[in-house]
Amino acid sequence: MENKKLATLQISNHRLFIPAVLSFIDMIITQHKNYDIDRCNQLRFVVTKMLLNRITNAYPNTVGELFVELSIVDDYLEISVRDKGVPQWIDFSYDEQLISSDTENFQKFVLDKCIDCVGLEKLGKDGQRLYVRQKIRNPISFETPKPYELTKPLDTNITIKAVETEEDAIEAIRCIYSEYGYSYAYEKLYYVDNLMRMIREGELMSFLAVNEHGQTAGHFALAFSDLFDNMPEISTVVTRKEFRGLGLFAKFMDHAEKIAKEKGFRAMMGQPVAYHPISQKAFLKSNYTATSILLSYIGSEVESEYNKQKERLDLFACIKMMDENATTVIYPPAEIKSFVAKICEKATLKAEAKDDKELALNTCVKIEDNVMLKMKRIILTQAGEDVEKILKDAVADSIRKKHEMLELFISLRHSSCEEAFITAKKCKFTLSGILPGAENDDYIVMQLLIKSVRSYDQLVTVGEFEELTQDIKALTEKREK
After folding, report:
1. Which domain covers residue 366, as residue numbers?
2. Is residue 253 located within the same domain as residue 371?
3. CB-based contacts of 469-473 (< 8 A; 24+ apart in sequence)
4. For residue 163, is it within any domain?
5. 239: Cβ–Cβ under 8 A, 6 or more apart, which residues?
6. CB-side exposure of 348: number of CA atoms within 13 Å?
7. How far apart are CA 369 and CA 366, in angstroms?
8. Residue pLDDT, tens place only, 262-284
9. How many domains does the chain have?
10. d(CA 291, CA 444)
């Protein structure tokens, strides 16, 4: 993920500083050719509200410092307010029924329409950071795309090549469009400049499957994230309909492993869909270990031949350790200690389990909304005494925003893991599995479904994925009884 800091302003908690901050923001963003005056005014409106919130509430009846930070995060402009004051959410949720009759609900409705993302990050002893993001839109004129048409394969001698040029990027985008239309969750992949930037900066490695006549047969990518350091995910896998049945998925897997060995990745991750046993078998054949179930993960708006009923769809997660000498120290909760040990052993990850149970002085957490997937992601790296309030606030915020799912990652590498796990269950989160193997952390994965009841009935499972499902069902059903 690109994160380029533009500027940091240090101010005191007094309203007199707001005009100066807004003038500085104006100076920065009006230099960007892709911002128009209306969008600048929208951002000013939101930032004013955010500054007033923290100036009023961060340091009651005393003087304190706030830091206003401007950054470019991927293709978004991010403005954040960081301080060590009294913790508080920034609430842009509203009741649709009261927009026309209640001033506060109308204001929140307008605020929500002015930005693309709002997030909260707990930084422990460094306080908290509230941020908003607004998309940097490129002035592109879109032509109505022609419907995707099947072509006759001129040969079936398929090779894998890296996306290196803009022409390659266009082919990758066309391939993604052939399966998802314009509904793919990571919309920045539809822009040539964004795709090429992500490749240049190491956020993504993109590959095409082509035959000897130059026809594109498929696409896949290795996606990197801060959450899973040195453990890229095999993603955006598309095999065009006319080239199916040629074992392209297996070719993608083999090529990904070759790249992993060349680059020295610690591990690899895959997320086979829970309604497609062929992809599950391909991962198992390549010695991946099933680790978690991500129920109702894919949004109902995603277009594909597998989602004709327009329901939220389920995924599995699996990993493969590439570093045979990889070790980790973890603090698994007693309730799932044997389950965690079983998965780590299957994955050949040398995990030393410790029994320490100690809360941190402060909760460190990052909370972010995903508008496209109608969900909230919570990354809890350590839990303090306020962890229950933080989780309850996050759930309440998602209910107000009409989210459909919350996803929670709890660090297994901190001694507060057990308390965080127990508290999450009190807040109605349910175990989905674990995701070990990254260089920076190993995680317990939990979910809370808001719009649906947790159900395993729709899963189509094979081999180890079936075993994983039964293990998780046994753990969750035991607790419910």
Report:
1. 284-299+313-481
2. no
3. 469/293, 471/339, 471/342, 472/293, 472/431, 472/432, 472/433
4. yes
5. 209, 217, 218, 248, 249
6. 11
7. 10
8. 999 999 999 988 877 888 998 99
9. 3
10. 10
